[in-house]
Amino acid sequence: MPLPHETQAAQEAQAVAQEKTQEGEVRLPRTASFPGRSIGGAALVLAPVVWCVGLLLRYLALRTAGFSPEQLAWFESRPFPAYGQLAAFHAQPGLATAGYGCLAAGAVLLCIAFVAFAGMVAVRAPRLARVGGTLVVIGLFCRLYWAGVDHTAFRLIGQLGLDRATEVVMADHADISYGPLRVPITAAFALYVGWAVLAVGAFRSGTFGTGRLVLFLLAGSLWTGALKESGLLDVVLSVGLCAVFVPLGIRVLRDTVPEPRSQGAPATGRRPLRILSW
Question: Residue 269 has what pLDDT?
Answer without folding.
Answer: 53
